[in-house]
Amino acid sequence: MTIWEISEKADYIAQRHQQLHDQWQRYCNALVQGITLSKARLHHAMSCTSEEDLCFVLFGHFTIYVTLADSFNSHTIEYYVETKEGGKQRIAQAQLMVDGTVDGHVSNRDRQQVLEHYLEKIAPVYNNLYSAVEHDLPVNLEQLVSEPRSA
User: Which of 58, 83, 146, 151 is most deeply packed, by most CB within 10 A?
Assistant: First the structure.
């Protein structure tokens, strides 16, 4: 393989990597706007995290992380929940494509679609918190991400 063939491949890799990064940034922007501009009372607050991740505090106690998986060229969006006591569990995953679709049908340019998709992904957390509060039960991390008891 010549230096020019490698150079062509390297340019292609860099271009595709940048396209994926751009789509991730659009997704992040749409989600932040969807949450902050929503009139629904989601009890989410923005929190600081690294440049590449999104972080929301839920009910002042739980932290929801939205991140692109660490591997190079990963198209996997991961959703995590963490409690104040420590411990972090993955709630769900989604696939972000270079064309800007999430899970094959959600446009990362449509903040309402992105917000609804996100809320579907983290619904087990809300459902399990609701059930625990309704029945006056404490909540542990494993229960938050499991199938809801009853909603």
Answer: 58
Q: What number of other Cβ atoms are within 10 A of residue 88's Cβ?
A: 11
Burial (CB count within 10 angstroms: exposed 0-12, middle 13-18, buried 19+), residue 45: middle
Q: Does the model's pTM come out above 0.85? A: yes
Query: Long-range CB contacts (< 8 A, 24+ apart) of 145-148?
Result: 145/81, 145/89, 145/90, 145/91, 148/124
pLDDT on residue 52: 66
Instruction: Determine the 3-state secondary structure of 17 from DSSP.
Output: helix
pLDDT, tens digit (0-9, with 9 covering 90-100), for 33-79: 999 998 888 888 887 666 668 999 999 889 999 999 988 989 999 99
Instruction: Take residue 60 and report the two structure tokens written for it.
Output: 């002042």
Output the DSSP codes for 78-103: EEEEEETTS-EEEEEEEEB-TTSEET
What tokens does 111 get? 């903040």
